[in-house]
Structures are given as structure tokens and as C-alpha cells.
Amino acid sequence: MTRRILLAPTSHDSGLSSTCLGLIHALDERGVDVGYLKPLAQNTHGHLDHTTDLVRLVTDLRPPEPISSEDTEHAFARGHDDDLMERVLNHGEEELTGHDVVVIEGLVPTDEHTYSGRINIALAKSLDAEVVLVGSAHGLSVEQVASMMAGAESSYRVGGEISRVIGAVLTRVPTDGSGPSVEDYRQALSAQGIRLVGAVPFLIDVTWPRVRDMQRELDLTVINEGDLDRRVRENAIMAQSVLGSLSVLTEGRLVVVPGDRHDVLLATALAVMNGTRLAGILLTAGLRPDPVLMNMCAPAFATGLPVLLAQGQTFNTADRVIHMNTGIAVDDEPRTRLVMQLAADNLDETWLSTLQEGSSSRRLSPAAFRRELTLRSRRANKRIVLPEGSEPRTAQAAVSCAEKGVARCVLIAPPAEVEQAAAGLGLTLPEGIEIIDPAEALPRYVGPLVERRKHKGMTEHIAMDALQDTVVLGTMMVHLGEVDGLVSGAVHTTANTVRPALQILGTKPGAKLVSSVFFMGLPDEVVVYGDCAINPDPNAEELADIAIQSADSAKAFGIEPRVAMISFSTGSSGAGADVQKVAEATELVKQLRPDILVDGPLQYDAATTASVAKSKAPNSPVAGNANVFIFPDLNTGNTTYKAVQRSASVISVGPMLQGIAAPVNDLSRGALVEDIEYTIALTAIQAAAQ
User: Which of 505, 537, 557 is at the close of a domain?
Assistant: First the structure.
């Protein structure tokens, strides 16, 4: 039976949407089949709530559109409460019955929606939902918070005795140490018979809108587009002289200034050219700067500095900026994920486990797999070297890994280049990141490299030349045990990463070759693709080895392998050398590893789709339910993984290399920051296993 949980806000600034997102994510991370439903839309001060859109943006859920706010108001104004609740049940039937747990979002109490409390109570009753109260602690004493929650809780009692409320989440909890502690809130709520199940701190980062959000909200003209995804941290009205205004030209500031203040524009351009990453410039009074001046400032604009124009006077424009709606835009995925993760990380683990009880299934969803990677890599606490240390995506991934405790990252690059890359991204390098200057480090690895490769004619001169390559330098660090693993490939080719590993580290005992797998985060589960990065055309024996390595990798990461050997033909329906190779490899796997569930040749649709498997391979133990896919050659594997990744917006983690004596992993040169982050986590886990 589906467990239904209504999140009911106690105030207009409760952080309801972020709490819904956080609870969905926390349950999904734990392998729970979770759904979401916002039954009724809400339009506040002309702004339509769009949590449903945000859920679609960052999850694979596709909840229905809420019933319109006009229909809701019409029904309640006429006392047709029961009719509206019946419509809610019909409207959300598929979502309400199609998951183990469904998160239901209530309505926020506002001056415009005085009936919201009545609606939330009706929803709890009609949907037979348990209730989690959500309220903000901002500006309230512990006693006021407890009183607010107690008053709300009393509304959700069945027969005046049994409470539907199973917990309360507090948002905007102060973290500066000057106010109450989480334990103070917990005890005060406990005294009222309410369990505190989440205390989400206030984090200023999650409140920053993008420049493009402001441009759309205030209907501003774009003079220089630049990077409209920059975040507006603060606003600065430049009313003083240039000298008096210099102190406000800091990271993330939006400079608001009349378009004819050429002195301020020049000063701002100089600040940008000196490395200050401003959010943007907002010119007022409808005044465009002189074209000659704009040409002088062009180098600053070329750094990505947005320049916008407002028609209103400076004071009125600044007032509009200050009071603009700063809710999350429907296309702002980074901020949505940040808010979602913040809420998920601050929900009570023990309480979350109670929501899992009675769940009919446990699955390794993409979120669950990524969470498992993060948790296991934290426990591993390994030192991972990144030879492309000044590459911006790599530097950003290293910062993220340090903040999350995923790994102790070592960046190989001149320190000034790393710092410049970080500054360009608006990042501060945490203490946990180590930077090694390759020029200074190189000499101490010459002797060990000569010793390692002397049987191949290595000399000091050749070693000095080889160690100019930071991948070779990093691989020597792995060989000497100074680091636990290596991740490269954001700017290097696969060959650049793999060749030093094979030459210096060699293969694992028993491994016939080096191969790779990708962990593909499909909507309902994580599957394994191999080999999609290394071997162009393996023979039957090599293909069998790839299958065995891939099955073992899947099992090591919590996936019980069901291996499909992919071909253009299923069973004996086709003929030819390519099909025969796959058939021979399948038999070899069965002989060498009878513990592995494997079948082939199988076409991809027969391997994945039960209805197709029923007709094409009715007696197969794998067809229709495969989760490890072994492709016959690199052309097929690489094309398939990239098509699935990009066309279906699937997150892929990898490639993870198999068969090397120590953990070395390659990146796609198109890797995103999160791809690099998860590959670092994979490498740390591999190191722990070895």
C-alpha cells in the first residue's frame, strides 16, 4: 500500500518547496520508489508556484499539473470542498497509487489564501495522508516555534485524539551560534508531542538568483549578454565618486549605475580585468553609454560580464531589484539541486528509515547509486591525484570533493594557474586540496622511473622528458604509493591516460587486458555498459574477459549482475563472424565463471524489454531483465553509451577502468563537473577495495 505524506506549511516563508524536493531526494537516495504530487496550484502575488516543474527538472518523475488556483478558489468559495477533493483523488490517482511513498505538497498560508489551512486539512483527510509540518524558525524564539507547531498539529487530529502528524521540519535554522541550537528546538517540540525530523540551516548561497532571472523578471534590455548564469550575491548602487565606490566592486556584486556615469563604467571594467568576477552591470535611466567608451570596455565585457539596461531611474530600478521575486526559476537546475541536497542532508536518518519500512521494493536508483558512491568514498578517505589540475572543470570537481569529503585531491599544476582557474569560477580552494608544482616535483621521480622501465631502455634523459607529461608524473605517484589512484582525461586522450598506467603499473594478476565500464543512471535503475572506451575489436576470449571484469565491477558496486552479450542477432537467428564471436565469448564466460548469470547473443531490445524477450528469447535467464551489457566492439559500445547519455539525459559515471594493477580512471573530454566528481569517488572506492 502506498504511504502518503502531506507536507503542510505553518507559515508563508516555510521553505515548503525545498523541503518537498529534499524529502523526495532523500528517499530516492535510499532506494525507495517515491512519487510526488502537488494537487492544487497556488498563485501568490501574481507568481504561480512551480514546484511540479522543478521536480520534473531534477528527477525522472512526471507528476501531473496541479488543479488550477482558479478552480480551487471557485470550489471553496461555494463550499464544494468534497467535490474538489474527489477531483484531487481522480486527478492524482496514478501518482497516488504508483509508488511506495508519495510526497504531497500542501498550500502555503498567505493573505491571499486564508483558506489554505482548511484545504490542507481536507487533503490530509481525503488522501488519508500522514502529515509533516514545515515551518521557518527565522526571527522566532524556541517557544514561538513550539507554539506555532503545536497549534498546527492540533488541526490534524482524527476524532480529536489520534494525530496524523508524524514529524516537523524546521527551515532557516540559524547557524551562526548566537541563537538556539537544534537540540533546543528538538526538546521544545518533544514537549508538545511533536518529533523534529529535520532542521535545515539557512545557507545564503541558495538565495542567489541568476542575472538572467533578474533580466526576465524586470524585463531588462541586454546590451552585452556575457554569462547570464552568474549569481547576484549583492547589489551595489554606485552613487559616490569612483574612489568612494571601489570598496563595493567585489565578487558577485551587481553594479547599478546611470548609463552616463562613464567614470564608474571605466572603473568597473578595470576591476573586472584585474580578476574581480562581478555579477553584472545594470545601467539605469534608459541611457546607453557612449560607443567609444563601450569599445574601450570591450575586453572586460569579453570576460563574460553581463551589461543590462533599465528604463527607470536609479532609485526606482534599485528598489525593483531589491524587491524582485527571488524564487527558483523553472530552468535553474544548479540552484534547484543545491536547495534539494541541502534539505535532504538535514533530514533525520532514523526517521527516514521508518518511511522505508513496508516498502514493497528496494532499488538501486541513480540517486541511490550516487549516494552510495559518496558514502563509500568518504569512508575510504583516499588520496587521488588529478594531473590536469588547472583545468577548470577538474579544479571545480576537486573543490566539490573536498567539501563533501569524497577524497583528498592532489592537483598537479603550477599553483598560480590553479588559483586563477578557481578565481575564474568564483571558487575558494579549501585547505583539503593539495597542489603540486610539476616543475618542482619532477626531479625526485626520475630515478624511480628509470628503475621501473630500465628493462625497456629507460635513461635519465628519457625519463626527464617523459615526466614533463603530468599524467606520467601522477602515475609514478600511484606506483610509489604516494597517492591511491589517478583520474585524468578532461583534456587528455584515453591513450594518454592508459598508456602510462600500462607501462608503469601493469595489469592485475589474471587480467588478460584493460577494459572499461560506464555506470548508466537510467530512470529506474543503474546499469553497466562495457567496454565503451578501450578495446576497438576484442576477440572472443578478450570479450569474455571484459564480461567477467564487468560483472565483478557491477557486484562490487551493489548491482547483482545479469549479463547480456549484445549482438545484432538474438540466439541463432543470425549468422556470421561477429555473431559467432559473441556466442563463443558467452560460452567461455559460462565455463570460466559459472556463478555469473549470462546469456547471448542478445539484441539490445531483447535484453531490456520483457515483451520482446518473450518472443525472441523465451527461455533466457537474462533477456528482458539484463543490467550488465557487453558490447561486441568499441564502435557499438561508445556510440550506444553516448547516444543514451545525451538523448535520454542520463547521467553516466565513468569510464571506470578494469584490469590495471592500481586505480586509474579516464574521463571523456566532454565530461561535466559532476562526471569528474563521481569518477573520483569511483577511484577512491576501487582503491579501498584493493
Answer: 505
